[in-house]
Design goal:
Length: about 190
């Protein structure tokens, strides 16, 4: 009976150690440099676009599949949008999304990784300086960037995201976003 209990204890300890090496969970936050690409005319009136600076925050997980390959799913609150101007008006359109990127991470060195993957985003809020609520409620996009592990637990990332679907029902625009992030893996 003692041998069975000892074997069970060793199995549980080994399994916990292996799982801790294969799965890490953490949090990240950072700055977005967001803009919108495409035709900037609303109701036939042409506007110039400028980007906005906003933020993102959320949780990440890294699932190690091979020595130099991991999958990193994330759950982020991310704000994107643009500022629109013409000779008469100026308004800011800020869209708050629940974004779910799933990044493939290819480690080029022990601490530097190339990251690419798709992203699904669901509109949670729309703030703008005019009375049009015309944002699409779902957006699909792709991301690419680099990650750097500063220590075993602290990391930084730089990423470019491009929306592949329209961000607005009334204008031919898509979200474009550069994200700079810092995070901590537990």
């Amino acid at each position: 009976m003692k041998k069975i209990l000892l074997a069970a204890a060793l199995f549980i300890a080994t399994s916990a150690t292996i799982q801790a090496q294969l799965l890490q969970i953490g949090a990240k936050a950072g700055v977005n440099f967001a803009s919108q690409t495409g035709d900037a005319s609303l109701n036939g009136v042409a506007f110039d676009k400028d980007g906005i600076t906003s933020y993102h925050v959320g949780v990440v997980a890294e699932i190690k599949l091979l020595e130099k390959f991991s999958i990193q799913p994330e759950l982020l609150y991310s704000t994107q949008g643009a500022t629109y101007k013409n000779a008469v008006d100026e308004f800011k359109n800020e869209l708050g999304y629940l974004s779910i990127p799933v990044m493939a991470k290819i480690y080029m060195t022990k601490s530097l990784s190339l990251e690419v993957g798709p992203q699904a985003s669901f509109l949670l809020s729309e703030k703008n300086d005019f009375d049009v609520k015309d944002a699409e409620t779902f957006e699909f996009g792709v991301n690419a960037g680099l990650g750097l592990k500063i220590t075993k637990n602290i990391f930084v990332q730089a990423r470019y995201g491009l929306g592949l679907t329209e961000a607005s029902k009334n204008a031919d625009v898509k979200n474009s976003n550069v994200q700079l992030s810092a995070g901590f893996m537990f």
